[in-house]
Structures
1.
Amino acid sequence: MKRQITLLLASILLLSVNILKAQETSATLSGNITDNKGAPISGASIVVKHEPTGATASTQSNNKGIYVIPNLKTGGPYTIKITFVGFKEEVLNDIQLNLGNNADLNVTLAPKSTELKEVLITSSARKQEAGVTVGLKQMKELPTIGRSLSDFTRLTPQSNNNSFAGSNFRYNNFTLDGAINNDAIGFSNSFGGVSGGGQSGTAGAGTRTSPYSIESVQEVQVQLAPYDVKLGNFTGGSVNAVTKSGTNEIHGSVYGFGRTSWLMGKSPDSLKKAMDSKFYENQVGFAIGGPIIKNKAFFFVNAEITRRQEPTFYNAGDPGAAITVAQAQAVVDT
């Protein structure tokens, strides 16, 4: 009996590990280190520093000159230093990394006895998969109507609002920091994530607002037909987002957005009564991040609230309504 319980616990633990690894939440840097004759350099030291937080990671090239550094924070900028005995140190600045694997960063080191005139950095071609990656810089610059990720994931050429490659949005898989955040019950709006309608297909989307603030998102990635076995649980699109974290500097923002009935044009006569009634939508929030212990621990806090009042159409007694007030009251009385 004890053996059966032990095996059951081991199976649950392995299943939990597989679930946690289901989606990408970090970046991977890889490449080749060679000399000026194209021969691989074994044992070259590669140090990667994330400038906003001061976090560093390091590795060495293998006997084929190949190096791989996984589990890096997305974004940047990064500073990369490559050193080896008998060769000049190479420093690469302002490197940006995206979710998942990035293009190979290949570096050619020059001997110390030779004056360095130029540094040759090449990026090897990878098989391109359908989808897009939208980073923090793009999210700050691109317009958004509903302040939802749908305003950015629609940049995918195969998308139609929140529908990808002709598949219904309910067949997407949405993950936030690797955790699945789908609408399992099916309360999402039927119109598939039109701007201003929230992030359809996610938990809480029936409220017509996003269950998370766009202000807290660092990067979002859409993949349609990935070859990576870590991605699955979808037949439409995989929408994978990661949230921000603090840096060594304190940064914050306070924001507010809204619209009211006086910003809208006049409605047709048949709907005038409903449309001319007062309605509004207001959203306010703040975000702040910074260091707890410099270069070691950080914090990021975001709070947001949305309030909305909307008119309803074709109520009992309204022009074009199916029933009169008297008929509706008769139904209630019955």
2.
Amino acid sequence: MGGLLCGVLVWPAADRAFSNVAVGESVDNPSLKTLDGKRHDLWSKKAQASVFIFFRPRQDHSLDTLRAMVDCEKEFASKPVHWVAVVSDSWTPAEVRATVTEAKLDMPVLIDEGDTLYGKLGVRLHPVIGIVDGRGKLSAYEPFHEINYCERVRGEIRFALGEITREELRKVENPEKSVMRTDEGVARRHLNFAKGLLRIGDAAKALEEVRRSLEIFPSAPAYGLQAKILAEQGKCAEAIPSLEAALKIDPAEPSAMEGRKRCGK
């Protein structure tokens, strides 16, 4: 995913990306000319979540974001999510196409003629992502962050779809901080982040964080969570060593017990 990192740090406080429209307010739905000369709406009344990405050609962060959203779009392919990218007409078609091609972008690319949409929303940053719900209300605006940008956008989409609550999203955005400054504390930080990722359905990245936790400080909760995730993926043969390690440390470790039950052990 290029320079887009999805690590263990929390997101810094976001600058207000749209200075003219706040979360909860209605977003206009203009029909804009696309890069291929057609017309396309900014958001769809048929979708539960519409995602629009303001990007700038020849900018690394924009390219990283577009690449990440290509993967994200595939993840939500079976769900009612509408995707578009938006670019100012101050860039030449050749410059826009070069970025689109490099990012392997397949979603419609809307050309904001005269920067009209930029002005209505009050776009100040690049890249920035807006998410609109099915009623045309702004559900989220996400300016670029080098840390955890992809997880945050994914969580906001799931919130707009009604798959998670705002409280669950908050826990992912702000994993519980450990008061410990030892290796155990750092490991716990990874573990807490893994639990947050699991809440929004990202088991693959949750497993990565659990493994990072175990590399730093092996613990019963980390082994147990690893066993649970593997068991839920149907990988019981891989889960058993973690089950045994967790239960050896703590015979009553909850996640390990759950994994053992799922694997019929």
3.
Amino acid sequence: MPSTRESNDIRTLLREAVRGSHTDYTDGPVGRAVLLLAIPMVLELVLESVFAVVDVFFVSRLGADAIATVGLTESMLSVVYAIIIGLCTGVTAVVARRIGERDAEGASVAAVQAIALGFAIAVPVGVAAVSFAPRMLALMGGSPGVVAHASYTQVVFGFNVVILMLFLLNAVFRGAGDATVAMRVLWMANAINICLDPCLIFGLGPFPRLGVTGAAVATTTGRGLGVVAQAVVLWRGTNRVRIRRRHLRLEPAVMLTMVRLSGTGVLQSLIATTSWIVMVRTIASFGSDAVAGYTIAIRIVIFALLPAWGLANAAATLVGQNLGAGRPDRAESSVWEACRYCVFVFAAMTLLVFVAAGPVVAAFTGEPTVRAVATPGLRIATLGFVAYALGVVISSALNGAGDVWTPMLINVVSFWVFGVSLAELLARWFGLGPSGVFGAIAAGFVIMAASAAALFRRGRWKLTRV
């Protein structure tokens, strides 16, 4: 049991992490720096995932076709998420490096370039997706009942600029070390979503009954108000990055650096996310119940793995800032410290989710055929939890250093060479069905961790310039 002094130290650390810290992350104890950044980042990502979990929880009351619509839409949206994550990779790396160099002006200019790039991508994607939403669902293997809910897909894609801005601006805050701001924005946005979801899906009180489309409207509204809050903080706030009128211009040199890093980051993410789309297509061949079960299980998996992304984002920020400050050894120590926390957290998470898989899945659906896919699939996926956490932390650290090509290579090997190929082999050739896909996912996680650790140890990332 921890002593009274240790307990007080832990409570003090938690309070500082949640309230916001002005700590210099290039100095002081490494473990403390990791936790001060990771705690609000974990909470931020948990709340972002709650968007999806809340949608599935309420939509599941509308039947398998409605759940499948959400699942297929999210799978297609993963391409947009890949672009967003790629942009965030460049944003975090550049902003963190400028902050480490004590160049707050350069960090603000980088933030403006990121916003400009985001709008340039989101508008055409939204227009195209709204026009072809029914066809997209049909191509993904959706049944006529799924295609009938295409309005959900149209709302989500039509307002993808809201998703993109929410992520990009939070990447600015994370790169600057202002992780608490990003967390608080998600708290507000998620509270709005939770309140609006049942009202708009089921038509409670004065609200119209929109069915599955109501989930899209509620989520978009919550995220949109979150973006407004972010913009206010950037314009009026007193944080490390502040945007003023003089920053509202295009800087070709800065944008070129952002495009170079983000472009490779987009390819890196696309390699991973398109592999998930192919896996969903494999699952869809087993029917809507299989897609619904897969959707529920993957949402739970993503939710359980979110602490890894919080630690990963913390590692990326610490690597970028410490390289900017000329302290590469401290940058490396930060990554291994984050990995140590990962092993502890995800060993416990594996046991917890494996044991509780049945009751957790039952909370989302009472349909036996859907539960028959989700429960064993969830248990199989937990076997790769620790490996995934280690792999994503190290890969994110490489991205934070500006070495975006190495994680791309890791993704090719783990998600395509092994993941997709093994999923098809196990599901079809060995007759394991959806469980074979989950087995391939766990195996891909192990390959990702092993290859990431081996390449990180070589240390070439320390020489990367941003």
